[in-house]
Amino acid sequence: MLTFLPVEPAATYRHGARGSAGFRARVGRFKPHLLSASTLDIDDVDAACELADRFEASGPSSRFVGRTVALVFFQSSTRTRLGFEAAAVALGAHAIGMEDMTVSSRSNGRVRESLEDCAAVISRLCDSIIVRHHETGAAARMASKSVVPVINAGDGWNEHPTQALIDIYAMRRGLGNLGGKSICFGGDPRGRVIRSLIQLLRFELPKEVLFCPPPRYKVPDDILAILEQHQICCRVIPDIEYALRNCDAITMAPYDMSEIGEPADSDFVSPHGTPHRFVITAEKIQRTGSKSLIYHPLPRFEEVDTSCDALPNAMYFEQVRLSKFMRMAVLDRVLSTRRD
C-alpha cells in the first residue's frame, strides 16, 4: 500500500535550504526575470520548496496588496493561467490580462506590434509579467524591454521553468527525496517541461532517468547532454510497463506534442492517438503490482487512463493542488525585487 510522504522539514532538506528569507535575499544575485531553469541553483530550488510549504501552512496573505500581475498568454492555458491568478490573489495581489492576446492585442499576427513594444507598454502598468508564447525566445525578448520581472510560462519548444519547479516540488512531496530514485519520462520527449525539468533533476542525483518515447521522436540531444554532463545514467525503454515495474516515479506527457510550437490561431492538431504499450492503465498498475507514483503536468489525453485516477499511484491532481503554493513562492520572489 502506498503512503503519501510529507515533504522533509526545511532543516533536513538534503541540499540545505536557506529558507524563505534566503530565497528572497538571493534575488539580488540574478536578473529579476525567471526565463530558464538553468538560471536556478539547488539553493534556489530548496528554498522555493520550503517557501511553498510555508504558504501551504499559512494560507492567504496580504503581503502584496496593491501589486499587479499581468497574464500575457499568446497560447491557450488552463492550469498555468488560473494557477498564477490564484497564486496572485492568495498573496493579496490582483491579476490583469486579456482572454486571448492573439485576438485582443495588437501584438498579434495581423497588426504585428513587436513583443518588445508590448513588454515595454505592459510593464509600465504592472509589477510583473507572466508570458506564454509559441515562439522560442519570446519571453527573453519581452524581458529585454520590460521594466518589471518577466516569468516564462512556456515559450515554444524551449522551456517552462515554473512547471519544472512544481514537478520537483510534487515529486519531493511524494518520494521524500529524489536521490537514488529511478525516474521515467513517458510520451513525447521534446516538450518544454522536460527540458526545464532535466535542468533541475541534475541537482537531485537520481539513480537513473528513463525515457519511453514514441519511436518516431528521439530524445533531444541537449537533454541527453545535460544528463551526460552530470553523469546521470539514462536509457530508452520500449514499453511503459517496464517503468511501472522498475521506476519510483513516472512523469507522463502526451504521446505527440507537435502543436506546442504552433500559434494559437493555427489549425494544426497533434495526432493524440496513443498506442496501448505507451498507455498507463489501472489494469497494468494492478497486474504489475506497481508502486510507481504517476505525475503529469496536464492536459492528458489517452496516455494516462482515467481508471488510474482513484489509485494511490495517481499524483497528478495533487500536483495541481501543490502548484498554487509553488507559484506563490515564485511570485513572492519576483514581486520582492525592486524596479530598476
Compose a concise summary of this entry.
This protein has 340 residues and is of the alpha/beta class.
Residues in helix, %: 25-40%
At the fourth level of CATH, the homologous superfamily of the largest domain is: Aspartate/ornithine carbamoyltransferase
How do the helices and strands follow one another from N- to C-terminus?
HHEHEHHEHEHEHEHEHEHEH
Major sheet summary line: 5 strands, parallel
Query: Architecture of the largest domain, according to CATH?
Result: 3-Layer(aba) Sandwich
CATH top level of the largest domain is Alpha Beta
Write structural notes for this entry.
With 340 residues, the chain is an alpha/beta fold. The protein has two domains: 165 residues, Rossmann fold (3-Layer(aba) Sandwich); 160 residues, Aspartate/ornithine carbamoyltransferase (Rossmann fold, 3-Layer(aba) Sandwich). The chain has twelve helices and nine strands. The strands form two sheets. The protein has a five-stranded parallel beta sheet with strand order 7-6-5-8-9, with helices on both faces. Helix 9 links the parallel strand 6 and strand 7. Helix 7 packs across helix 12. It is globular. It starts with 18 loop residues before the first helix and ends in a 5-residue tail after the last helix. 47% of the residues are buried.
